[in-house]
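In response to reviewer comment 3 from the previous cycle, which asked for concrete evidence that the modeling workflow produces usable outputs, we include below a single protein chain processed end to end. The sequence was submitted unchanged, and the resulting structure tokens are shown without manual editing.
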Amino acid sequence: MGALTWNLKGRRPEEIEVSGISGITVTPQWAWGGSTGAGVRVCIVDSGIEADHPLVGAVAGAYVVVGVGDRFEVRETPTIDRFGHGTACASIVRRIAPDCEIHSVRVLGDNGGGAGDALVAGLRWAVNQGYDLINLSLSTTRERYLPALRAIADDAYFGNTVVVASAHNATVESFPWRFSSVISVGSHQEADADLVLYNPAPPVEFFAMGHRVEVAGLGGTTTCNTGNSFATPHVTGRCALILGKHPTLTPFQLKDILYLTSDNVRGNNG
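The workflow returned the following structure tokens.
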């Protein structure tokens, strides 16, 4: 991250020229045509990932948040998942972006529950590693974690790490998907894994397939799951395709391209 800039005193506009995408019609073909997600590092912050699952393949790095006295720290761990949620999400990302590099940070326990402090520690660590994308198919309703999560989400945004966060399945306030610095995702019920819709009435920004999604199950199996959790990695996978083709995009630019290529945004997406 560069030095903080509060104004342009003593500098000229030509000193901050940016190579933009003006004059280009942003279509799906331009945005991700031919991309497989190669070169993009995706971190699944969840319940872990099952090793060698045929629908996931190689996991480049596996870590777990552990309690040490009154604090939490992140350590390397064998590639395991005893609950299945993280493995399911990873399989969706892999299906869409087969050549991306997948990492795992385990913040949930064997029964799918987890401490808010573990979520904060795991997400902060993932952001500090500089992953290109973080898939976060979970959230917390506890407002005491709001300041820390907001600060982490802002650090990600300004550090060029894109957090793709799932909205809660229930109509409750939860975080960090509510923050504008992340890409927030809910589910639609259409049987179309390629259908991504922009929501003109946020705070949820995008909808993706989240109804009866075929995903990896534990023990090398396949199952069908429903929920916003499984819509989110569809958007993460698409982001991986876009970044694989346009690796210098900022989070702001990436979100703009997602909007312009959403299937319900007319006149831009071909």
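The CA atoms of residues 52 and 58 lie 6 Å apart. We consider this sufficient to address the reviewer's concern, and the full set will be provided in the supplementary archive.
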